[in-house]
Amino acid sequence: MKGRHPGCPHFMHDRGSPVGRRRSGLIVQLSATCRSSVEGEDMGSDESASNTGCAQVSTGSPQTLLNAIVRGVESHGIPAGTDWPTAKQTLADNDGQWKFSAVLVAIVARREPTILLTIRASDLSEYSSHVSFPGGRPAESDRDIGTTALREAFEEIRLAPDAVRVVGSLPIHKTRKRNHAIFPVIGIVPETARWEAAPAEVTEIFEFPFAVLLNPDLLRQYTDGERVGAWYWAEQVQDIWGVTALILRSLAGLVRDAMR
């Protein structure tokens, strides 16, 4: 598995694994090295945290962080109730070649908030085995970008739409190589919510700690190879890069600004 680091906290949906603590339809797996940090205890020196890949930053109370998320998205984002014809007009270079979609960036309101991420099935035609958010193209019946994100999340990870407090959408994110134009819809879900991978589309669901997201030292760019210039999150269990990393980078920036 690319990017695997034995010291980093890994929150993984795994119905077959006896390891971890079951919470709301998932197994929460923590390495012994990182458990104290993830559970809010003093881990020790900054060097220790950095060397294990668990380097985090203080986010204050969960409610403070959630409030900052709402402020940031509402101040700089797009209403999730924006209908698709209007949403498409926000793309200045809309030459008809773009494939529009919406994804759900689901933030789990735990004591240490996390973000739900998935690993796509290995036999999908695009982005197979990549880390991503649940999402996809709009259906004819979808009235707005938020509806698309919620519908796709239910199809891919069985997350009930009524369990999500939709905040808004980040500005559109593009992948020029494959002409995808993506609306990242931000939603907050309680830790009591349930989710489960739909095997045809998702092989795994895991949680990415928000405190790691806000650590700027872990966000980097490839300097060579086929991924040169692409953003990625270093020292993580999973290989978080490309447009997924770019969306996370945008969210982190909005939240940092809102917390100042």
TrEMBL record:
It comes from the Bacteria. Residues 1-22, 37-58 are annotated as: Disordered. Residues 98-235 form the Nudix hydrolase domain. Residues 47-58 have a biased composition (Polar residues). Gene3D superfamilies: Nucleoside Triphosphate Pyrophosphohydrolase (3.90.79.10). The keyword Protein biosynthesis does not apply. The keyword Ribosomal protein does not apply. InterPro entries: CoAse, NUDIX_hydrolase-like_dom_sf, NUDIX_hydrolase_dom. This is CoA pyrophosphatase.
